[in-house]
Design goal:
- There is one protein chain.
- The protein is an all-alpha fold.
- It is built from six helices and two strands, in the order H-H-E-H-H-H-E-H.
- The protein starts with 13 loop residues before the first helix and ends in a 23-residue tail after the last helix.
Length: 224
């Protein structure tokens, strides 16, 4: 059953649903709900609910979106680069500490102080890098989830509008009939959009220039 103005309805009461079922079963042979078998009633209710309600599993969608996978690859590469910077600093600290320990007896007080200052400076740099990495990870994860959850919502709204669905549930569904689950439709729509966007961003390759064939050498003279 399709409604004329699905966007203006937020929730239907059982009384309203019952009235709609009566109207459906009355035409065209004027049957009443009471005349239907239990199985027929269940089928009518199931078909009616399937046409009006749906749900999306956002975490399933996030795990299947190609754009998310590409974004996670880029994020992983950024994290590995930042982690390498921290590891490099840790290695420098170890080198300085080893040098100080091996040369301690031969170093002047000023030289030992320079080593100590360098080590403390490197430790401070490492701590700053580590805190920056932690903040980067948290912010990147939040931006990733919030950005794609918005895209999931937009795709679900598009599908709901096209299918005259009046209510789409998100996270928190304990169980739902598989016929109400539009998660795979959302995944397919988002992947298609992403593929189309990537295709548009790729500039067509310049046509290859055809090199003229070299002329065949001319014979010096005719054979006698």
């Amino acid at each position: 059953m399709k409604l004329n103005h699905p966007t203006t309805i937020t929730l239907l009461s059982f009384l309203t649903l019952g009235a709609q079922l009566n109207a459906m079963t009355a035409a065209p042979d004027t049957r009443k709900v009471a005349d239907l078998s239990i199985m027929q009633l269940q089928e009518v209710v199931r078909d009616t609910v399937k046409s009006m309600f749906a749900f999306v599993d956002p975490y399933f969608v996030l795990s299947q979106i190609d754009e998310v996978k590409d974004a996670e690859k880029k994020l992983k590469a950024d994290l590995e680069l930042k982690e390498k910077q921290i590891i490099d600093i840790q290695n420098k600290i170890k080198e300085k500490e080893d040098e100080l320990r091996m040369k301690a007896s031969a170093l002047s007080p000023d030289a030992r102080e320079r080593y100590t200052s360098e080590i403390l400076s490197l430790r401070a740099q490492g701590q700053t890098k580590l805190e920056g990495l932690q903040a980067f990870m948290q912010q990147a994860q939040q931006q990733l989830e919030m950005g794609f959850l918005k895209k999931i919502q937009e795709a679900a709204e598009e599908i709901a509008t096209e299918s005259n669905i009046i209510l789409v549930y998100g996270a928190g569904i304990v169980y739902g009939h598989k016929g109400l689950n539009i998660s795979e439709k959302v995944v397919a729509r988002l992947n298609k959009k992403y593929t189309d966007e990537k295709r548009k961003s790729i500039k067509p390759a310049a046509p290859a220039q055809i090199q003229p064939k070299p002329e065949a050498p001319k014979a010096n003279g005719a054979a006698k």
